[in-house]
Design a protein that fits this description.
40% of the residues lie in helices and 19% in strands. By secondary structure, it is an alpha+beta fold. It has a single domain, classed as Translation Initiation Factor IF3.
Amino acid sequence: MLSLSVTQRRELKALAHALHPVVIIGNAGLTPAVLGEIERSLKSHDLMKIRVMNDDRDARGAMLQEICELMNAGPVQHIGKVLVIYRPLEKPIAKAPKRPRGKPLTKKQLASRS
């Protein structure tokens, strides 16, 4: 399990505030399908929210610990039924190269590109 410092958790909480839950855990709990979906989401997002539809706070805390141990992630926050976890991306997502700034292309130039 990844350990986070207090300042890292504070910064990640601020970033997670605007996020929506990506995965919802239902009454069946942590099934292999749910764990697979969390793994797929963590490959593209380093920070994610998970909503748990369970009323037992201790069970939700245990789920957070289990998810973090299985996914090698760090627990960021547990508020109500929402869990926030963080795992750094294995390799950064490549960004598209930027076009040099200058004059906008004309219709003729755009047509010649296709």
